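I hope you will forgive my troubling you with a question about protein structure. I set the record out below, with my sincere thanks for your time.
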Amino acid sequence: MKYYLVVGEASGDLHASHLMSEIKKNDPEAEFRFFGGELMAAQGGTLVKHYREMAFMGFVAVVKNLRTVLRNMRECKRDIKNFSPDAVILVDYPGFNLKIAKYVKTKLGIPTHYYIAPKIWAWKERRIKQIKKYVDYMYSILPFEVDYFNGLGYKVDYVGNPTVDELAIREDADETFEQFTKLNGLNNKPIIALIAGSRVGEIKGSLPRMIEAVKGMNDYQFVVAGAPSISPQLYNEIIGERDVKVVYGKTYRLMQQATAALVTSGTATLETALMGVPQVVCYYVAGGKLSYKMFELLLKIDYVSLVNLIAGKEVVKELLSYLFTPENTREELEKILQPLYREKMLEGYELMRNRLGAVGAPRHAAKVIVKRVVSF
C-alpha cells in the first residue's frame, strides 16, 4: 500500500518516523512519500519537502511568509495527487493539515487519517466542523480527548501516548549522575534543570526569570537544556557571567539526572513528569494581568500543562503570564525540594502515567491504520 504523510515540525518528524516503522511491520510492501524530516527519511520512502521550510509559528510569522505557505500547500496537494496514495496520514500541524485534508477528501476521495489530534479543546473549537467533514479517522494521544470529541459528536481512537514510548526506548537510560556530570563538565552538586523551550521567544521570555529565581541557591548547580536549533550566542547573552551551564541536545539525559526542574509549558512538562522529576511550570507572556485575562477568555480549559490536564487536577504549579516572577518561581521551587511536597507531586505523576497507559502508541495506531487501509 502507498502512504503519504504530512508533517510540519520536528516533533511530528519524530512521531511519524516511529509510526512509519510500525506500519512497515504490518504492511511489508508499504511505500512512503512525505513532507517531513530526517527521521522519517531514515525509515525509507521519498522526502518531498523538509519541515524546516514549513515551520512558521504564530499569526505574524504566517502572514510574513504567506507566499511560501501557499506555495508549499499547492506543492503538497499536487504531489499527493500525482502519487495517488491509498491513505494520507496527517500528523498534528492543524493550520496546514486541515486544509490538506479538505483537498484530499473532496477532490481526490482518498481516506484521511489524522495522527495526534489538533488541540481544539484549548482553542479554535470551531475546527470540529472541518474535522467532521474532512477527516475520516482521528488518532488521539491524550486520554481525555476521547470524551471531549465524543461530546462534540465525533469518534476518535485513543492509541496511547508516543512520549511514553520515546522515553522507554531512549538511549543512555542507564547513565549515572557521575557519568553525565563528568562528560558535560559539571560538578557534583544536585542539578536543577532549566528547560526554557526551543524557540527564541520562549527562551528570551522565560530563561532570564528562571535564572533570577535560582540566584543564591549555592547548594545546587543550574543547567539549561540547550536547544540544538538555537545559537549559543543567545544563551551566552542571557546567562552572562552567572554560574549557569548549558548542555545541548541532551534534554532527556539532563532530566534523568535533575533533582528538580523549571519547565516552560509544553510537551516538556509531560516528559519531565514521566521522568519523575518534580517541576514548576512557567510560561511568560508580555502584557501582565491583561494578557492573563485574555488567556482565561480564549482558553476553554482549567489548566495549561499536559500533566494537570491528563491528571484532571493540579499536580504541578502553573505560573503563567504575570504570575511567572522570580519570587513566585523561587517560592514554588523551594517547596518541591521538600520531601512531603515532592512525594505528593510524584503521586500525581503516577495517576497521570496510569491514565496514559503502557507503551505502544505508534504500534496501536499503525495496526488500526493498515487494517482500515487494506479493507477500504
Observations:
- The mean pLDDT is 92.
- The chain is about 50% helix and 15% strand.
- Residues 168-355 form a domain with the Rossmann fold fold (CATH 3.40.50.2000).
